[in-house]
Design goal:
single chain; 380 residues; seven-stranded mixed β-barrel; alpha/beta; eleven-stranded mixed β-sheet; 10 helices; globular
Length: 380
């Protein structure tokens, strides 16, 4: 529930965590109340891409960078057609945006889209709390009159957990659409939208790929009706343990031995299709400065992340699956979380992070070229 007010910066607000921790500040964006899982993102820039990433559905994002909003809001950098975060938490919002591309302030855009936020709190203390206790349910409440703390806590604790949440269908496209190749068309890819970011098909289009973006509920017949050279499974929100439909579809793709590439949620889907489990991370990886090693080359990359779940696969051996041998291809150097999988006996691989990285970094852009190489090899 939200209401609009131009005096939001003077309106009191409170952030309530499910363990009873409370932070008082000022309203930022729309005034009202909102609920979601409180998570923190460590990117120093790219807040517009973060807020419009469908993978953040039902999450209250805490910005660890102390000042947010300096570059305002433009009409070019959205990753989807709307802001998906449930709420936004910042310490020091910029008073006046300063960028030649800005059309309006971040505060104005949050208000326009009805996104409830809070500013003026100690985001460092909040981030340390979430690191120690883990991501948890939270609520932001703002207005001239805020109910008693005990009532607010009860309302937060009544919200659903992220574990077990099935969210990918609610953020995915309902109708198929095509992103044409830029320049000469070389390949056709069927992309399964589980919460796809706009930059992802663009990165493929730059490489001469015509991308047919299909709904999350697409069937194998609908996928192969576009006669794809490869199939892509996108990022998306929620618990991968709930995604039985996408797992069945990926299984059908693997059975056809069609070149396959998955990102983020798509990595978790590949993990499940290969017989591995998934689990919820304590506080997840979110930001654009995460170190990952590509074990196939030994190179360490700075990468963009947004995931709260991970694949449970062995790091120290090649695994036998019903689709042949599989191994962990990428690993996070902070905590040894699986960041990529690849099959050794057929053309399929995935990564847990975001090589499209619209706000940077671009160390992992080569993965789109690797996908092209798989399709070239299959065609040959």
């Amino acid at each position: 529930m939200t209401t609009s007010t131009r005096g939001a910066a003077r309106v009191p607000a409170v952030l309530v965590l499910e363990d009873g921790r409370l932070f008082r500040g000022r309203a930022y964006g729309a005034v009202g109340e909102t609920f979601g899982e409180a998570v923190f993102s460590t990117g120093m820039t790219g807040y517009q891409e973060t807020l419009t990433d469908p993978s953040y559905d039902r999450q209250i994002v805490v910005a660890t960078a102390p000042q947010i909003g300096n570059t305002g809001w433009n009409d070019e950098d959205d990753e989807s057609g709307r802001i998906w975060v449930s709420g936004y938490v910042v310490r020091d919002p910029a008073r006046v945006p300063s960028n030649w591309r800005a059309k309006r302030s971040l505060d104005d855009e949050l208000e326009r889209q009805g996104v409830v936020g809070i500013s003026g709190i100690d985001t460092r203390a909040l981030t340390r709390h979430l690191r120690e206790r883990g991501s948890m349910r939270a609520g932001i409440f703002s207005g001239r009159t805020i109910p008693a703390e005990s009532e607010l806590l009860e309302r937060v604790q009544a919200q659903p957990q992220m574990k077990g949440a099935s969210l990918y269908e609610e953020v995915a496209t309902k109708e198929a659409y095509v992103v044409p190749a830029i320049g000469e068309k070389r390949f056709t890819v069927a992309a399964i939208d589980l919460g796809i970011k706009g930059m992802t098909p663009h990165r493929m289009a730059e490489r001469g790929i015509e991308v047919h973006v299909l709904p999350a509920t697409a069937t194998a017949d609908e996928v192969f009706a576009v006669d794809p050279d490869g199939v892509f499974f996108s990022n998306g929100p929620g618990d991968p343990a709930t995604a039985d439909g996408p797992v069945a579809l990926m299984t059908a793709v693997l059975e056809r031995r069609t070149p396959l590439f998955g990102i983020c949620f798509g990595n978790q889907i590949l993990g499940r299709a290969l017989g591995f489990g998934t689990y919820k991370l304590k506080y997840g990886h979110r930001g654009i400065n995460q170190p990952v090693q590509d074990r196939t080359t030994g190179k360490v990359e700075v990468t963009a992340h947004n995931h709260g779940f991970a694949v449970d696969a062995p790091l120290d051996k090649v695994s036998e699956t019903k689709f042949g041998r599989a191994e962990v291809s990428h690993v996070c150097l902070n905590d040894n979380v699986v960041e990529g999988l690849q099959l050794l006996d057929q053309p399929a691989f995935s990564v847990q992070y975001h090589p499209e990285a619209a706000a940077g970094p671009h160390d992992a852009a080569y993965l789109f070229d690797r996908f092209v190489s798989l399709m070239e090899g299959q065609r040959a």
